Amino acid sequence: MRKLLFFLTASLLLVGASVPLPARAEAKKYYLGGMTAGFLLSAEGAEVIGLSEVAAEDGLHRPAEESGIRVGDVIVAIDGIRVKTVAELNDALARSGGKEVLVTLKRRGESAEVPVLPVREKKTGKYKMGVLIRDTLAGIGTVTYIEQGSGKFGALGHSVSDENMQTLTIAEEKVYLCSVIGVNKGARGRAGELRGLFLNDRVLGRAETVCGTGLYGTFSRDYDYSSLTLVEAAPLAAATVGKAVIYSTVDGTCPQEYEICIVKVDEYSRENKNFVIKVTDERLLEETGGIVQGMSGSPIVQGGKLIGAVTHVFLNDPARGYGIAIEKMLEN
């Protein structure tokens, strides 16, 4: 567990000897992020995004639906053999030879097993179960910091799940720079979002883990940090109600500084909601309506030090949202 360390120096007296004081340890420094990153995630299985009919010689069949499989389920195994991709699911059905298979599902965190009888499709001759599958999900978010020297970075500031609340894992280690090509503005009762384009020739680094406080990895060694601001991190105890700034990208690839106000500081929050913030910058309000999806991870800076990251928006007021303390992200 990594913590911010504060050192006290003291005189040490020894009989007949003089001992020099230790030098003060250098505080770690971090490059401020704010750039939008694209990554590929997986539900650790084949996620069902639709149910369909299978046209066989003797008519139409709906084997998955008849077995109780629902949209949002994640198929994780067939007859006990792990399934993560569409190709692996197709291979398992081919091995069945048309015999009943036992399908292991994840549904909102719970596991279930259902028997399914695959049907041979008339057109292709392949065995099908009547599901439309997604095995990866593209997402965008904002890089919060990159540690000087090591290149270790943190992004997002919150856990990652899909619209069916399935927890996601890393599908591909590459993290790409994204260009923001449009914004769906936030409005009362509806969250806005950034629309980003993956720049496949601009790899920022590699993703290594996702957890409850975001996505973490290592930036590429040849990344150019010359345009980024280098700061120290400050503990949550140093944060105060009042003016602060965030760094976000809402157009193109270059982060901009925007003014916010910290409305509340909560050091005891167990949900990583350590700040309530309000966007006060007229430019950002005009462009996005406030906080939108894709801005999660935008670094929060107060007094020239990194104190946290934007995580959520208030649906009833898109100018307001939550932030996580940077010390919680650095611990991971």
3D structure, described in words:
- The strands form five sheets. The chain has a six-stranded antiparallel β-barrel with strand order 2-13-14-18-17-16. Strands 3, 6, 7, 8, 9 and 12 form a six-stranded antiparallel beta sheet that branches.
- It has four helices and 25 strands.
- The protein is mostly beta strands.
- The termini are close together.
Quick recap:
It is built from 4 helices and 25 strands. The chain has helices at 63-66, 86-96, 282-288, 326-331; strands spanning 29-32, 36-42, 46-51, 54-56, 59-61, 74-78, 81-82, 101-107, 110-116, 119-120, 127-128, 131-134, 137-147, 152-155, 169-170, 174-184, 193-211, 214-219, 230-232, 242-248, 256-265, 275-279, 299-302, 305-314, 317-325. The protein has 332 residues and is mainly beta.
Tell me which oligomeric state these chains represent: single chain
Average pLDDT number: 89
Question: Which fold does the CATH topology of the largest domain refer to?
Answer: Thrombin, subunit H
DSSP summary, beta strand count: 25
Annotation field: number of helices:
4
Radius of gyration: 25 Å
Ranges where pLDDT stays below 50 over 5 or more residues in a row are 1-24
Provide the CATH architecture of the largest domain: Beta Barrel
Q: What characteristic shape results from the CA principal axes?
A: elongated
